[in-house]
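Hey, quick one: can you model this chain's 3D structure?
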Amino acid sequence: MKVLVIGSGGREHAMAWNLAQSANVETVWAAPGNGGTATEAKCKNTPASLGDPSALAVTEAGQDVLIGFVQREGIALTVVGPELPLAEGIVDRFRAEGLAIVGPGKEAARLEASKVFSKSFMRKYGVRAAGSENFTNPAEALSYAKKYFDGKQAPLVIKADGLAAGKGVVIAADLAEAESCLSSFMKDGSLGAAGSSVVLEEFLEGKEVSVLAAVSVQPGGKGVIKPFVSARDHKRRFDGGQGPNTGGMGSIAPVPDFTPIAQKDFETAILRPTLRGMEAEGMDYRGFIFFGLMVKDDRCSLLEYNVRLGDPETQAVLPLADFDFAGLCSAILDGTLAAFPLNWKPGAVCAPVAVADGYPGSYRKGDPITLNEAALAKTGARIFIAGARLDEAAAVPVLRSSGGRVLAASAWGADADQAWTKAYEALGALSFAGMAYRKDIGRE
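Sure thing. Here's the predicted structure for all 444 residues.
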């Protein structure tokens, strides 16, 4: 069969690569894809004639174009990577046309698209999470922040209600920082409509863990959520967890300190009540979910839901999959997920991310990426492209950087130490001007 993957990042490259491993998959199209999906075996990027890639999947006109493309090409399955198309209802549009698509419907996508809705859902169904309050009035939000910091040293977490491309969460260390953030979000409109409503949340201590999972829930029926192996994302730009937050500087899977006791606590306090809530709300949720956890002393609290696979966690988790990813997608859609075997390879994966000079601020683009294929082959690592395009106008086609997060080197090892060594050897086989990366992914 033919498959379409919607998105253009490293997550989508990893998904396309894994789907292409299936004997049942003939071709994987990526819309719009990137330089990695353009060169991956059995994969193709959608043609430029479809129109502006930034509009595909997130506008009605762009969704119509994709629907037409799927129908013309005879594509049997579509998988959505990023959150924005889901929030904009692409799943509902495809299903109305009788097309198979993996992802939650628009109403269910509010679990990520609206922090206010998400926190309300957690409270309603007893999902263990940080205490919080919602505000639409800047003065009332500031008043709450003043009371929060009165005699308290812990930071305050400020979350914009809507989607903000990873810029909608600020951990304010003191009242001055909180006031500045609230003014920026709610008065200055720095995030547009996304920041006009905010959630103020207590700060939780512990270690962050990401659990990705497959979900199959349909209105009126019993649902299933099957978790993947645990993962950890490293958000801060510099070694030791220092510097500004980014979209992710690398990930590992599984997480050594996520114990069986913590896993059981997660399933009891978070996964099961989430499933009960989805069923009770009559959600049509046939896709993937991301549980962002804070874990302390084997006790888990939910920080957030994402209604899709995480990035860069996917680049560490999918190389451990010992099952047919296309088959998993079909099981999600046809209601057989409960019987689908999620088997995982032994060992570990480390996937550090190489970024462009200046990231996460303004960064340079257009630099050619060179690769020592022999050195890379010795490591067995996979390179997942996030922000690079294929320059076919050059005498010899070459990858050029086009984003802040350029690529991830995803390496398997018999244990975490071996995976770390192979991943960094793989990065040593690559280069582009200004290339930078953290050296402590998995060791922070």
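One thing worth noting: Residues 122 and 129 are 7 Å apart (CA to CA).
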